[in-house]
């Protein structure tokens, strides 16, 4: 058989990594060989011994928290960062994705502008919101995102417990994930008000007003409600190891739950919050160094399901406003362009996890959880979403050089020791280190596929690729 394209390099599959090649036709992987020179293509691209990974998947992106970002800029940033698919959050400004007409407009924008593939989260209104779930599910959302903490009563509301339980039941009926920003609104609102009254506005007070108990109490409540409702629960941006302990206990009882952490919670601590101030303000906040170490141990022990960026494309003015009052600064930081290289340095080169496990944390596990059945691994029949990483190619992060509209990062001037050499979406080259972004967009809207529900639940309860090392 002659293939349209053959990609050669050091291939990373769920079973391991080896020098080989991949045969691609019509955007699909048709053959994987553990020897080079066995497959014949109209075009052959040889990356030597550079790592050839499955396209990475970021399940936590905010394209429209800042409307200056949008689909084109965010998906270009994703391609440069080795992310071939992402799930965009529903808390768009000015209108959240809580009805079908708004969802359809966003789908059309994705299909017109996206450089990489994008799935979309839906959400529900503040009151009696579960009524919108059926129509949004039928329209193809990948899951529903809700919050126990209120940022804005219309765009990013706190959902009351009775509505949460009803939403859990409805999403379970559609076999869709329901995810939560889990922070205790009552506690942290009071702590923030007390700090402001006392004039405690330095950066560290963002951490002190959001202690771990504000996360863990919200997590436990959601876990218990999921156990009663049969929901497919997902806890986003976990910042503390105790939250993972609770998740693991409920998993052992049969609750269908997964948890993510974000790259910031593995690479930064409260010392960085003190040093960088508003640049390092995220929700939940950065934790103490020993707490970060404990969270990392959970990851290395296989107890964290995957890692996301929580990409929030704020600009300098959104952060500098909080220079003397941390509570005025926007929360969040960009990550699409830098998460994968930073994590590869830290987890593969420094901590010694296997390439296959790295691929699971950043591709296979999110693909399984959100039923992106054509994504997540280099295997026959899957989409030819491929990312090439070159080791030993140092470069320095420059916040002023992002493809994202964001121009502020606590990783500014940090040296990374690997780079994204090329990114392919369904076999189309969308980014290369030498040529930049391909002007011909290849991305499209994607939605969950059909899988066996028992297998789906078993994937959430365990079964990692290989070992943490």
Automatic annotation (TrEMBL):
InterPro entries: Amidohydro-rel (IPR006680), DHOase/Allantoinase_Hydrolase (IPR050138), Metal-dep_hydrolase_composite (IPR011059), Metal_Hydrolase (IPR032466). It comes from the Bacteria. GO terms for cellular component: cytoplasm. It holds the Pfam family Amidohydro_1. GO terms for molecular function: allantoinase activity. Residues 51-430 form the Amidohydrolase-related domain. GO terms for biological process: purine nucleobase catabolic process. PANTHER family: ALLANTOINASE (PTHR43668). This is Amidohydrolase-related domain-containing protein.
């Amino acid at each position: 058989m002659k293939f349209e394209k053959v990609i050669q390099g050091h291939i990373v599959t769920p079973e391991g990594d080896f020098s080989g090649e991949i045969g691609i036709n019509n955007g699909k992987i048709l053959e994987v060989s553990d020897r080079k020179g066995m497959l014949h293509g109209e075009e052959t691209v040889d990356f030597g011994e550079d790592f050839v990974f499955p396209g990475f998947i970021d399940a936590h992106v905010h394209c429209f928290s800042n409307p200056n970002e949008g689909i084109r800029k965010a998906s270009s940033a994703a391609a440069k960062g080795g992310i071939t698919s992402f799930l965009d959050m529903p808390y768009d400004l000015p209108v959240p994705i809580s009805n079908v007409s708004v969802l359809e407009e966003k789908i059309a924008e994705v299909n017109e502008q996206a450089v990489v593939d994008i799935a979309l989260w839906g959400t529900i209104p503040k009151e009696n919101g579960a009524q919108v779930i059926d129509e949004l599910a039928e329209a193809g959302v990948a899951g529903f995102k809700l919050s126990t903490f209120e940022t804005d009563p219309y765009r990013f509301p706190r959902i009351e417990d009775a509505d949460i339980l009803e939403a859990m039941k409805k999403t379970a009926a559609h076999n869709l994930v329901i995810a939560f920003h889990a922070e205790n609104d009552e506690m942290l609102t009071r702590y923030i008000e007390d700090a402001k009254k006392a004039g405690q506005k330095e950066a560290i007070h963002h951490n002190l007003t959001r202690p771990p108990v504000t996360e863990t109490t919200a997590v436990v409540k959601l876990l218990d409600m999921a156990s009663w409702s049969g929901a497919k629960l997902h806890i986003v941006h976990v910042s503390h190891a105790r939250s993972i302990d609770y998740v693991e206990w409920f998993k052992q009882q049969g609750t269908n739950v997964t948890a993510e952490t974000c790259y910031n919670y593995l690479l930064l601590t409260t010392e960085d919050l003190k040093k960088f101030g508003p640049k390092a303000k995220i929700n939940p906040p950065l934790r103490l160094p020993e707490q970060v170490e404990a969270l990392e141990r959970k990851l290395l022990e296989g107890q964290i399901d995957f890692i996301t960026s929580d990409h929030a494309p704020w600009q300098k003015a959104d952060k500098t406003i909080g220079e003397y009052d941390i509570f005025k600064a926007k929360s969040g930081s960009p990550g699409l362009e830098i998460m994968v290289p930073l994590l590869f340095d830290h987890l593969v080169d420094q901590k010694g996890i296997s390439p296959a496990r790295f691929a699971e944390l950043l591709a296979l596990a999110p693909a399984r959880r959100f039923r992106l059945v054509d994504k997540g691994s280099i295997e026959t029949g899957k989409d030819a979403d491929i990312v090439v990483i070159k080791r030993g190619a140092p470069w320095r992060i420059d916040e002023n050089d992002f493809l994202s509209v964001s121009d502020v990062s606590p990783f500014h001037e940090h040296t990374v020791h690997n780079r994204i050499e090329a990114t392919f979406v369904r076999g189309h080259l969308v980014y290369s280190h030498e040529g930049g972004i391909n002007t011909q967009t290849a991305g499209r809207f994607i939605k969950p596929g059909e899988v066996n529900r028992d297998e789906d639940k078993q994937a959430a309860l365990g079964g990692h690729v290989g070992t943490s090392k």
